[in-house]
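Protein modeling request. Please complete all fields; requests missing the sequence field cannot be processed.
Requester role: graduate student
Desired output: 3D structure, token encoding
Chains: 1
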Amino acid sequence: MPAIGDVARLAGVSKATASRALSGRGYVAEDTRRRVQAAAARIGYIASPDAASLVTGRTKNVGVVIPFVNRWFFGEVLEGIERALLSAGYDLTLYNLAQAGPERDRVFDFFLARKRVDAVMAVGVDLTEREVEVITRRAKPILALGGTAPGAPRLAIDDRAAASLATEHLLKLGHTRIAHLAGAGSGAAARSVQGLRRSGFLESMDAAGLAPAGNSGGVVEAEMSLPGGYAAALQLLGHPGDRPTAIFAASDEVAFGAMRAAERLGIAMPSQLSIVGIDGHEYAELFGLTTVEQYPGEQGRIAVARVMRLLGEVSDDGAPEHDDTPLKTRLVVRSSTTSAPR
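Delivered output (342 residues):
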């Protein structure tokens, strides 16, 4: 197996220079760097990450915890993270995080805390103070994207404002009987994504002097998926005399399920029922869904850039450690919403 000494001899440089040229750490003249890289390629030399980590203290690996890998939003975020990490010369170790329990504890107490990762990214997960402490006390930076992590940097859209924007769109169309298909657990977890979207809806309704419409108090919790939205919408729309004329769904996938439920119940859209979601799902245009778009792939890229700053791989340029500027969103109006029926 070729060694760094073989590369150095072929390139006519010292082993230290060859190491700097291949690791990117330390100054090496550009023509020398190209000569060393060409020599390494010629003899098939691949730098050992374990050997490099002994010198730098870095593994060039980031741990990513995520609740779902088979849902559109999380898949898009993960793709953005992976591409950005590869561009930065880092690997990714993925952990599909379960709900509270022994399996989740093992992820933090063993896999993330004791295994070799340089930083941790939590995507759409609400971490506990203990989980954050387990990582930070081992001097590993941690970043929350879309979820919460007490005391750690966080990137997210303004979920409350996005929900208000969606609700106010329906109000401006003249709807007064508006219901909300909320994310599961939104009533018990006010600071979660689902809880913030529920709060934005209720605040906008209250500001308009209106109460949520429909049975179950006008707010029905649903799993954030198409089947979840379908089941919850059947419950919400099942009583003809108490139906809302509009629904704000906590996600586009929930909205898709609600549209299917309305179709099954013979409710014409949008003349009898308007529906708006949040996310900017890739199928939103196909369904004609009005939605508040966010951009998960770009969010993944931005999150990696922040982690690289926390690791000192790039300059902070005077940027604050905790930048709370919300990630961008945009209301896109399509055929699923129209003026309230008379």
